[in-house]
Amino acid sequence: MGTTFQTVRGLVRFAVAAVVIAVASLCGEIAFSSDAEAPRSAVSSVASCDIGAYLADLYDLDPAKRVFSARMYLWSVCPDRKLDPLPTAAFTNASDPEKGDPVLTSEGGRFRDLMLLQGSFRQDWDVRAFPFDRQRIEVLVTAATDDRDLRMVPDNANSSYNTEIRPAGWRITGFRLAPSQRVFSTNFGDATLPRGTTSTYSRIRVQVDLARDDPTIFWKLTGPLYLMVLVVTATFLLPAHADELGMGERLDSLQSRLAMLGGGLFVIMLNMQQVNTVITSTVGLTLLDWLHLLTLAFVLIAVVATVAAWRWTVRGGNPARAEHWHRTIALTGLIGYTAIAAATVWGFAAQST
Prior knowledge:
The chain is α+β, with helices and mostly antiparallel strands. 45% of the residues lie in helices and 29% in strands. The chain has five helices and eleven strands; from the N terminus they run αβββββββββββαααα. The protein has helices at 2-44, 216-237, 247-278, 287-314, 319-352, and strands at residues 47-62, 67-78, 90-91, 94-99, 103-107, 110-122, 134-146, 150-154, 160-161, 170-184, 199-212. The strands form two sheets. Strands 1, 2, 4, 5, 6, 8 and 9 form a seven-stranded mixed beta sheet that branches. α2 (216-237) packs parallel to α4. It is elongated, with a radius of gyration of 37 Å. 23% of the residues are buried.
């Protein structure tokens, strides 16, 4: 009887231990799963809205003034109307934007807000490779709510642009919406943030890629340079050592050439000022700047050669020999100028692509 009682008591102890172990294991799994799901719930707690755009028109592109104008439709699709970022969104690079009346609808259990945006937008243009430059202009849409509470997600699947847009001198090569963040070096007095920290806001970049479509203006701006190079070269190829010419007449021809070269320098400087009113770069020297500097160097070398020939002739030098050197220098300079100018243009064109 005692042996049977001990056996039963052992079985009961075993059963109790098994139950305790099972309960402990179950509690551990629940605790582990709750810890594992904590980051997911934290991430999913941040609400998000889809943001889309349709570019209806693009005009008044002015790299010199660093602005462009656009008209587009923006929409937001949110799970709740209270989350709609468009009414309070900041169009960061816009100058006095005009917003149309919103069109509010509810579709498929989600809230949609459609609005028209039109205005002038500030833009940094890199025109150093003009007319081979490619530009990416942007409309910046920044939420007014901290990204801890709202994040804007680009709706590229439904975003597009009007294919009939023809900006003067440009063609559109791409269109997209890119997500980003705007970090401010202040917490704007938010007591929920540590003192002296930054604050981050969700931002959407509506990006339009552009390429030059009309090189005519390039030839208009550089035509006077090439014409001046040919005129300078021609002045060195004219004969000036005829036997019937006296020393005074020979010197007069050199002085006339010098006066023409001085006029050429004046023309180049005027053309450079005209270029600056059309193409202005705050980054560095443009392709047109380099071509103007190259032409100035060519004319200055011609001035130095003319002065050297004038002094050498006054001191009794042979005019025929001077003319021979003039022709050699003129042809060599023309070939060198053409080679350097072509290499400069090719370098900027290759860099832009």
